[in-house]
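S1.2 Input.
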Amino acid sequence: MPIKFPFSRRAAPSDAWTKCPTCDAQVFNKQLERNQRLCPSCGHHFRMSVGERIDLLLDPGSFEERDAGLESVDRLGFHDDRPYADRLETSRLKTGLRDAVVWGIGSIDGRRVAIGIFDFRFMGGSMGSVVGEKLARCFETALSDRIPAIVVSASGGARMQEGTLALMQLAKTTAPLVRLDDAGVPLITVLTDPTTGGVLASFASLGDVILAEPRALVGFAGARVASDTVGEEMPEGFQSAEFLLAHGFIDAVVPRPDLRASLSRLLRLLPVAAVEDGQPVSADRGRGPLGAISGLAERLGGAVSETIGIDVETAADGNGTGPSSPSIPGREEST
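S1.3 Output.
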């Protein structure tokens, strides 16, 4: 008597396998989940949900979500081929989230952080009014509690269904960062695939340290739009994390298995500045994370300018006291 299997390979569930976009390998989804959503053949970094990010980065059981009840509403009555309200409801049912960002307080190796995490499954991780509000509250809480802030971005940019209201979130999310820097509270941004549009043009590019996952798409506009804007062909892969690392926009490209350890190390290197006797941070010399690194370099020897990486050679002027012009490595004076 022949053995009857419950289903043939041809009738297998369509969501049991995922095709890797880099090497075209067929990867069993359960294998992806066990392997931090990395392709076992080529190491391609698949996108992760909020829950998977929390499990990857934070200490077990340490995450406490804040402002979970905030929901977007259709202030403009926007309607393309579907009403905006219908798109929101569909995304909520698909993801189990109320909007594209979840934020809260957690810890990494025992160090408390305020962290915001994007989920690209919710309308492409687009930033509307609720996303901007949640991130602003994340930064304000980091300031009031004097704990580092971390944002893991995965977004197509501002949410077009909210029009100008979405564009206003660029200013809303960047304004608190000035106060964070003045208070010496570090911000670490992690750019994952993709980080584009208004999200990249605002807080995502303003971290004291900017990390990215390998081969993440990072750019303000699409390649064709960028090429048409400047009127010339753009270099191959100019919107990849590796290209931006080579040109100084990103501080490090960190593979996913090493991301938690890298964040933990950065939290040790960039501690929150202490406030002495309740006094505000001096406006003459900020105590921000980069200011701390600059001060350390001065104590170890050799002056540095306010811009990290530019050496200042002290030379006598007419009175024997003035500094010379900044010397930028790799740049020679024209003759």
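S1.4 Remarks. Residues 2-12, 281-287, 293-335 have pLDDT under 50 and may be disordered.
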